[in-house]
Design brief:
about 110 residues, globular, HIF_prolyl_hydroxylases
Amino acid sequence: CWLRPDGSCDEDDTACEPQGTSAGEVACGDLCTRLIVCIAQLVQQCIDEPLLPSLLMAAVYPPGCGAGFVEHLDNPAGNDGRVLTAVYYVNAGWLPQHGGALRALTAGAE
């Protein structure tokens, strides 16, 4: 599901219908917006160039089912404007032995 910072969905994403009705969903949307703004501000401090966030990929995987992303390149051709990928796990009490750790590959090495 591709979300905009305002909580709306990308028109091309038919699999996502934002609910936003429960207190938890509203809080999650607020947290995502704050994360996007904070990341953009931190990047600008480091590279002195504005970062304009446009879409956020939101995914929820139920525990114990083995679901997740397969190995992929985020910006293989380098032409989609994406210069930063940030991953945020919100599992309370998560430990590495629970699985689901991020593995990043660069230039053919882990």
